[in-house]
Amino acid sequence: MDSDGQLTLHRSGIQDQLAGGLLDRLREFKSEIGRLDPSTSTPLGHTYLSTEVTGRQLVPGTRIRLEFYRSPNKNEGEPRVWDAVRAHSGCNQLGTAAAAGELLTDGKLWLQGVGGTQMRCEPALQAQEEWLKTFLTSRPSWHVDGDQLTLTADGTTITLLDKKLAEPDLPLDGTRWNVLTTITNADLRYHRSQADPAWISFDGDRLTGWTGCNELSGTVTRTNTELNFTDVTITNHTCPGETADVEAAILTTLATTATYTIDHNTMVLINPAGVGLDLTAN
């Protein structure tokens, strides 16, 4: 893609058919996003957390989280590009999508409906969730001012701050990362409620930890997204029951290379085989 937005193909040969199809999709994507006014700041690509709500008192200890993002759509006969929003107010994950350029038009949030997970919530959280659905589908006006997003409708105003400022990510180094759940097949999670607490910690190229019954140490090198582990060793005690399961998951995760993502006070480590750990800061 050139600086003026032109798309060109720089390879030729038998792969042209596939590459040409990719270029068609990219051109469609460019066409869709071109419908947005580039001079207007939008929430797309950002996650926000509420700092103030007027006209409604939130359940103590909760806040509203809104994530706006754009993604391609592979379903035939539907818009090729979605603008989407995810919402959370203390219980279920909510969300919906619209064709690119139609979610945030004329200064309003246009949602036809909101779906989500179906966990049973406490009555106060359930009521708050239903209120948020009603608010989001009432076509509230929106305004972005720097890192702040404001939504207003029917006498209610929700003021939100970019999550990077509201809840900055904790550093990888110097934080004790406690094992919360183990992961298999990339997305199957297991909480070992009977296991003894386990944790890992990083300090430059040094890895230390506790598997629940054994001390752990090793070396680590890193990129922005991956950790490469070497010389990982543990002391020689036999772990009982679920503690042994957690130890096995830790050692498999730290066997070679694992990708890592940090979201405020949580971290996910997962290796190429889909084995990993959900961790939370101490």
- What number is the mean pLDDT? 88
Largest sheet features: 8 strands, antiparallel
SSE-based structural type: alpha+beta
Please tally the β strands and state the result: 19
Order of helices and strands: HEEEEEEEHEEEHEEEEEEHEEE
Inertia-based shape: elongated
* Fraction of residues in H or I helices: 10-25%
Radius of gyration: 23 Å
Quick structural overview:
With 282 residues, the chain is α+β, with helices and mostly antiparallel strands.
What key phrases describe this protein's structure?
alpha+beta; 4 helices; 8-stranded antiparallel beta sheet; 282 residues; single chain; 8-stranded antiparallel barrel; elongated
Secondary-structure blueprint:
Elements: H1 16-33, E1 46-54, E2 65-72, E3 81-88, E4 93-99, E5 104-105, E6 108-109, E7 115-116, H2 123-136, E8 141-145, E9 148-153, E10 156-162, H3 163-166, E11 177-184, E12 188-190, E13 199-203, E14 206-210, E15 215-222, E16 226-234, H4 241-253, E17 257-263, E18 266-270, E19 276-281
